[in-house]
Design a protein that fits this description.
Structural class: alpha+beta
Order of helices and strands: EEHHHEEHEEEEEHHE
Radius of gyration: 32 Å
Shape: elongated
Oligomer: single chain
Strand order of the largest sheet: 5-8-9-10
Amino acid sequence: MSKRTPWPMVVPVGTKNVGTARVRESDARASEETARMSMTTAQRRIYEMNGNPPQSSALDDPTDPFDRSLIRQHPVALAAKRPAKYRNTKCEHEGIKFDSQKERSHWFHLVQQQAAGLISDLKLQVPFVLTARKQRDDGKWERASKYVADFTYVRDGKLVVEDVKSEATRKNRTYIQKRKQMLEKHDITIKEI
């Protein structure tokens, strides 16, 4: 292995290669390339058409009297949009938000059944307390554990609790545990749709 040249290395002007490495042409051209790489696509196309570099943003000007603390980025712009864990699509109908399209379509079905008189007292997103809030020996409080049912209604005088689940969400350990606690504590079997 050959001995390396100590840095900063001085390369005479006009040299194209040093060993197997290619030498950049000049600092001015290198800074122009760096500026071109930091441009947006639209700025780059304008620069290629007329040769004028884009104007700097007003936000970069320290003498600008505009208060920068008023500028907020939209939360969606800050984080890349990732698909939902179970590939469901959240949706809304008449101000009611649903976790999936399947849940929304089942809501429409239950509303029709209530209108036909087959069920009554239809409710959406009903919480059931599984374990109450308690204080530990060290003085800190343990939060209450809840199960939130997608739909509840009364059919033939009996309370029915329904939850819209896909094959993957039926296997969720937290859901399975809460389903068992609902049966033990409230004597309610959750009907999975």
